[in-house]
Amino acid sequence: MFRRTCLVLVVALGTSVVGSGANAQATSDVPRRPWPSAEAVIKDTAGKNVGFLSIDHRLYNKSRLTVTVSGLNAGYHGFHVHTRGVCDPKAVDPVTGSPFSSAGAHFAIHPATHGEHSGDLPNLLVAEDGTGETTVVTDRFRVGQLFDSDGSSIVIHTLPDNHANIPDRYRPADPGDPAGGSGPDAETLKAGDSGGRVACGVITRN
Ligand SMILES: [Cu+2]
Ligand SMILES: [Zn+2]
């Protein structure tokens, strides 16, 4: 019995020594991450922290966004990367009345209408308890591209985003409309009818 216990002890010690040696080796050999990652603390108009976003680089020039939120209204919310890294709740859009207009329009590396913007993301689903979490992988931007001269931000809207998916049959002809009287109108092509902005977070490198 004693012999058996000793044997187990020796084996355990051996494993531990090899383990710490391997760890020490690995630590000194690990290069600094070659790809940038990013994060954002998401705040509502009162400055209350309602969420956190992290973004990291994925293979094949993709980016992975992971977000958790709490204290929001249940349901789907439009969710986009916006083109300026400024989240001022007092910056009210004179046309829509939405706060956080300082964040600018949807992040777009190339000119596009809504649904095709670089920063367009799937809707964020918030549960009845006000919490939500989602992870999405996009190939529309690399992490480094978010840090252009005016930065970028993440914005959560009040309403669901239709991604400009308005089939022609839902809209009567309107000769005055720049979209030509059928399908999504100019407002839909801008932001998907996702309404005002409820929360915003400046995207920073980490
Ligand atoms: Cu938005
Ligand atoms: Zn968009």
From TrEMBL:
<protein>
    <recommendedName>
        <fullName>Superoxide dismutase [Cu-Zn]</fullName>
        <ecNumber>1.15.1.1</ecNumber>
    </recommendedName>
</protein>
<comment type="similarity">
    <text>Belongs to the Cu-Zn superoxide dismutase family.</text>
</comment>
<feature type="region of interest" description="Disordered">
    <location>
        <begin position="163"/>
        <end position="196"/>
    </location>
</feature>
<feature type="signal peptide">
    <location>
        <begin position="1"/>
        <end position="24"/>
    </location>
</feature>
<dbReference type="InterPro" id="IPR001424">
    <property type="entry name" value="SOD_Cu_Zn_dom"/>
</dbReference>
<keyword id="KW-0186">Copper</keyword>
<keyword id="KW-0560">Oxidoreductase</keyword>
<keyword id="KW-0732">Signal</keyword>
<dbReference type="InterPro" id="IPR018152">
    <property type="entry name" value="SOD_Cu/Zn_BS"/>
</dbReference>
<dbReference type="InterPro" id="IPR024134">
    <property type="entry name" value="SOD_Cu/Zn_/chaperone"/>
</dbReference>
<dbReference type="Pfam" id="PF00080">
    <property type="entry name" value="Sod_Cu"/>
</dbReference>
<dbReference type="InterPro" id="IPR036423">
    <property type="entry name" value="SOD-like_Cu/Zn_dom_sf"/>
</dbReference>
<keyword id="KW-0479">Metal-binding</keyword>
<comment type="function">
    <text>Destroys radicals which are normally produced within the cells and which are toxic to biological systems. May play a role in favoring mycobacterial survival in phagocytes.</text>
</comment>
<feature type="domain" description="Superoxide dismutase copper/zinc binding">
    <location>
        <begin position="62"/>
        <end position="203"/>
    </location>
</feature>
<keyword id="KW-0862">Zinc</keyword>
